[in-house]
Amino acid sequence: MYKALQFFYQSSRKQILAASVASLVVAGLNLSSLNFFKELVVADQDNKLFYFGLIASQIITALLISTIVGKKITWHFEQILIECRESISRNILRRPYDAIKDRLNRIAPVLQFEVAEVRKFGKNLPGLVVAITQTLVVFAYMFYLSWQLATMVLTLFLLITCVMIVALPMQKRFERERSINRTKLHTKFELFNLGYKNLSINREHGDHFINHSIHTPNYRLAQENTKIELVKIVLEQLITAIVLIGLGIFFLGGQDWVELSQPVITQFVVVMIFILPSFIKIIVFFNELKKVENAIEQINELSKDLEDAIPTLKNQPINNENNSAPIISLKNVEYFYGENESEFKIGPINTVIYENEIVIIKGGNGSGKTTLFNIIVGLFQPDKGKVKYKGQTLSLDNIQFYRNELCCHFTDSPVFDDISYIPENKFENSDAYIDELELTGKTNLSFFRISDFNLSFGQKSRLNLMRLLLEDKSIYVLDEWAANQDVHFKEKFYLEIIPRLKKEGKTVILISHDDKYYSIADQLITLRNGQIESVKMS
Known about the structure:
It is a single chain. By secondary structure, the chain is an alpha/beta fold. The protein folds into two domains: 2-309, ABC transporter type 1, transmembrane domain (ABC transporter transmembrane region fold, Up-down Bundle); 328-537, 3-Layer(aba) Sandwich (Rossmann fold), CATH 3.40.50. 63% of the residues lie in helices and 12% in strands. The strands form three sheets. It has a six-stranded mixed beta sheet with strand order 6-9-10-3-11-12, sandwiched between helices. A hairpin with a 2-residue loop joins strand 4 and strand 5 (392-393). Helix 4 packs antiparallel against helix 8 and helix 7 packs antiparallel against helix 8. It is elongated and about 110 Å long. The N and C termini lie far apart (69 Å).
């Protein structure tokens, strides 16, 4: 409970205090309305309308206060969660890719599901304050009516609380298992989305994927949901059962040792029925507490994992005064797959790339092209050796500054429709790029957003290239960009677009299998078994 309340209280003291004061007012109005009902019952005909109006005005006032305060505090907590999601997202982008890639499958479920659980908790806090306030005030009134009956009811409620406390650890265990299986199921559905075409063509594979890969976490998630709901139902029914049994025992024999008038007993029962929903709300809140505690633990674990285990990338400027140095150089660079050097590695790699060069990297499958690509763009940090930019060694302190100089295309790059991050003055050539990439009528730019009209994979790659051309950085690094283009557009890409970029002073690094166009390269680097086999200069 402490973790959950601390999560909100750290930044919400004033809001929680204001909600508590408003809740006291609402509770007072509700209790006053309840008291005036007694007056309404015994009032003569001339005064009934007065008491009815008084009751109605108090109920409406309480409703308005609850609505206004509830809206404000709910929105306040929503803003906290907005910042939480965006803070974690920013934190992720500042981490080295090779260190975080194995954690990426946890990010979406935590940001989507676990944060939503915390949101639900925050939304219920104002109602909880009202429920607790009303319960305390009503208990005080019960003791005023009859300390014996109030003691009996308090004993019943304490018994219910003990049952709930016993059930909480079990509830927390179920919630944690649910989070684990929810993450697994989310990952499988992402894979289902990516592999839809393969799975739909090979129905045997598709059916097997559903029956095994999806069914297992789906079934386990359903089991945990059922357990959680069962605990909730049992607790709610147990509350009602204990209260009714206690009242039954009192009416069977308790009246022999408690001398009360019938009006007092009637009023006591009415007050107890009035307070029962509030008490149930409190019990349900504590039942939900383990859910939100688990969610906060998941959020904190991800945040702590990012903070403690993974270094932060920084944006320290790089001195660009050494104009004679290569724009990019790799010296004795090695990268290992796995825990030790005996497993597959690339390197040692030694190569230099000068400004305004076209460099093509080629090699067979498994030769290390993509790994070298990831090292060049700063996604992978070499285990040995140095990568330099304009003569300065890249490190975690300056790698982000270097990355900001790159336009990158990956084989799995998605289409980002919102490109408003690009300065407005760079959109002057957008129509020309659309024509050049033969996307006229297939897409348009409106308010710095790209419209995607069910384009083919190759056309989507052209959209990505248009985005990179609009970015207009000094270095273009493209992994197999032309692989999904037809013969006509490959020729345009290699013989028109790339030479134009060179003419504009850009440095272009390509991974390519299109040997027909290798002649455009200033350097042709061939990789084999993770090492440079040859370098041909034009």
